[in-house]
Amino acid sequence: MNVLTTYGLSKVYKGHYALKNVSMHIEEGDIYGFVGENGAGKTTLIRLVTGLAAPTSGSYTLYGVPNSSGEICTVRRRTAAIVETATMSRTMTALENLKVQCSITGVDRSDEELTALIERVGLDSKEIRSKNAGKFSLGMRQRLGIAMVMVSEPDFIIMDEPMNGLDPQGFVEVRETILSLNRQGVTFLISSHILSELEKICTKVGIISHGELLEEISMDDLHQNVRRRIVIEAEDDVAAEAALKADGTFTEIGREEGKLAIYGDADLNRVLKLFVDNGLRIRSVNTLEETIEDHYIRLIGRGYRA
Amino acid sequence: MSRLLKADLYRVLKSRLTLIALILALAFPVLTVLLYAGIRAIGGLGQNDAAGALLGANSIIGSVYSLSNNVGLVIPVFAGILVCLDHSNGTLRNKVIAGNRRTEIYFSHLIVSILFSVALITIYAAVSAGLSLLFFPFSWDSSLDLCPEILYFVLNGTMAFVFIATVSTMFAMSLRSAAPAIIFTIITSFFLVAVNSVVMMIDYEEFKYAVYFIPTFAGNIFTLNDFSILGLLNQSADASRSLIFAEAMLSYLFFGVVNTLIGLTVFKNRDIK
Predict the structure, then answer these.
(1) A89 CB near a chain B CB, below 8 Å?
(2) CATH class belonging to A227-289
(3) Are A129 and A94 in contact (CB under 8 A)?
(4) What is the CATH code of the structural domain delimited by A2-223?
(5) Domain boundaries, chain B
(6) Does the interface ipTM go beyond 0.85?
(7) In the prediction, which pLDDT does A55 show?
């Protein structure tokens, strides 16, 4: 079942396209990673589909209900989101904020249930419990935001940069929480610029740049069609590069961190034979698969990392 | 909408601003009454001089419902901030994302603003009345039949603040920022009070239909007749109190609805920050 489908969604701010003709779809059970540089349009799309902003053109459906329908508010109750930063009343404690969130989302939770939720997101010390959220660090606010999202047990969770402000331990906890909820059937749309984190959890990614969706690809497809490259550290890299080019088989040769990189699924045996035949000495050799980060950077036209 | 209302009320009750507003609503009448009582104790306002003769509990209570007095200013300031906190904290987003309709969100804020304003003005009026009756006779003029007047006056005064709550909510929800919302609400209050005063000074009989166009005008008619310092000097009005009252209520209702429709239309069509 399609959870979210957008049809040519566009948003114009002051004559400038923040989002241009974006069509994407998220199916039930997906963890959809939304990837793009700052200002690419990730948050704009999230603001549109959460009802915070109206599209300039295009439309979307949420659980099959079009955004123009009066029923869209009803179906939104199945969703929860953190947009940009976790939002809460800064003059209330974590527990009080969760109580307000319960009222807003129309769910009944006992104090014990809410306290258990606070503990689950790692805000369990007595000191934190008595503190107002205004005195929380960014990471603590983000954790509380995640608890607020979870309070209504939604079917679809949208997270805009959920790793912001979190320490490495927080990364792991959020990742495990997402995977655990996903196993229970919760669908996710996660925007992040920490691509290595997305790679660990996503089932599908959408790559957006300058407001346009460049590609929507499942992680399975990405791994099946992955580009591999051979990175060689040669004693005489100038001679090695010349020999590789002279061979004519290796069309894409570049540099990564000063080492020679041969792209385009090159045959390692052939490369090694070439080095042996030319009397070139090798210090190290690695065969690397393209990561989501490499794929993203290649797609938006900047080539591999230097 | 009841769940939104519950959340908004909880937020307001938990806010330190509410406590500050409450302290001010208690402190202002205490200071005012003690000041008058002190002046009278040192012989500054005796029954035998002109001003002193006019000073009774009725005149102190009579000043309570003015939009331009101290609590008249405190209410739009605090009501505006409390509504705008929902925008500035970003908690408004949580409501929209959770599938609450914008109309419900607006009305929840409006109801909380009205309850906040009415509670504050009622506390202020009750403390003013209680304290001033300790120090002053109700009125030096025993010929006044003040019971119906008090009822009209309190209801009309309360409606003035309900009306101002609709203005405050309209500005807060459409401008989304506390400072301009407060400034525009206070300007509106002062504008209404100033226009009333000008109309009354010219000849209020000529402008009796102003009650339809200036929501707070009826309040001035009551105040300026037999219920305040000035009112005791001007007891000529014999207009039907209940008719003026009914007209005033209609006027408040009409303009309150207009404000709400404007605010709601702007809020529904604006992106949320």
Answers:
(1) yes
(2) alpha beta
(3) yes
(4) 3.40.50.300
(5) 2-268
(6) no
(7) 93
User: A152 CB near a chain B CB, below 8 Å?
Assistant: yes
> What stretches of B16-145 show up as alpha helix (H) in DSSP?
16-41, 50-54, 57-64, 70-88, 91-97, 102-135
Burial per residue of A100-121, b for 16 or more beta-carbon CB atoms within 10 angstroms, e otherwise: bbbbbbbeebeeeebbebbebb
The full set of domain ranges for chain A reads: 2-223, 227-289
In DSSP notation, B233-260 reads: H-------HHHHHHHHHHHHHHHHHHHH
Q: Is B270 on the interface with A (CB under 8 A)?
A: no
Q: What is the DSSP string of A192-235?
A: -S-HHHHHHH-SEEEEEETTEEEEEEEHHHHHHT--EEEEEEET
Q: Which residues of B touch A77 (CB under 8 A)?
A: 98-99
At residue B228 the predicted structure's pLDDT band, cuts being 50, 70 and 90, is very low
pLDDT at A275 over 90: no
Q: How far is A148 from chain B (nearest CA, A)?
A: 9
Closest CA to B99 of A129, A77, A132: A77
Bridge partner residues of A255 (DSSP): A260
Q: Between residues B239 and A61, which one has the greater pLDDT?
A: A61
Q: pLDDT tens, A112-140?
A: 888 888 887 777 767 677 888 888 888 78
> Which pTM value belongs to this model?
0.80
Say yes or no: A44 contacts chain B, CB-CB below 8 A: no
Chain CA centroid to CA B8, Å: 21
What pLDDT sits at residue B260? 93
Q: CA quadruple B105, B106, B111, B114: dihedral positive or negative?
A: positive
